[in-house]
Amino acid sequence: MDAIVAENLLKKYDDLVAVNNVSFRIHESECFGFLGPNGAGKTTTMKMIQCVSPKTSGTLEVLGLDVSSKAREIKRNLGVAPQEVNLDPDLSVFENLVAYARFFDISKKEAAERAEQSIEFFQLQSKKDTLIDQLSGGMKRRLLLARSMINRPKILILDEPTVGLDPQARHLIWEQLSKLKTQGITIILTTHYMEEASELCDRIVIMDNGMILDEGRPSELIEKHLGGNIIETRDSDAVQKCLKKFSNDTKFEVAGDNVLISTSRPQEIMSTLMTDCGIVSTSVRPATLEDVFLKLTGRMLKE
Is the same domain home to 175 and 40? Predict the structure, then answer.
């Protein structure tokens, strides 16, 4: 069963095409990630799903409902945790949750009960009566997630949910999100942390220039584009000349002062490098989603 279906989805701002005829399906109870450089179209796509930015053309259905005509009904079933911390600084942790619940016509008594449950789930018990400015960055992130769950949503939308957090705080949030997924909640996220996408996402799309470059499970994309392993060695004209003599299934690219060789035959290639190319210093490591991301979107910074 699909929670979200997009077909030829287009978003234009005057002459700027922000999302260019993309199509994707997000299944119920899965974690689906949108990856891409800044300006790739990820956030614009998420805003259309949230019904806060109208589509230009194409079709977009959320929970079987059209975003153009059923926005209010869709929003009641969404939980949203934005990248920016927009908590009320004049209220405590508990008061922020209760106040937010009132936007969904939840009774004061029910709101208080849900707030208590969310505080416990996201391990904020000791900070229940603390004002926002006195919370750490990790606690604010957990409170944003707690707030996004107050209306018991079917779909949770997260924009960079762990940005700026230390590894311990990030892993704690990963654990809680994994628990939510087991409860049947569909999670959609954007992230620049490739490890986060690999850890949480069942499937991802990689976007650039408003288009989807590829889609699939992280492990499948790694195998498809890189063959499973990366050999690194120092770059030189002699190394590149030697590598070009290899068979067509040996792919390489230059990254700074190094050459990265993607292969499913690391031992064979390393042996050939040492024998035929005279290379002594090499290293081999598993290919990662970050390698795929850089291969598809390029290594040059785009402003």
Answer: yes
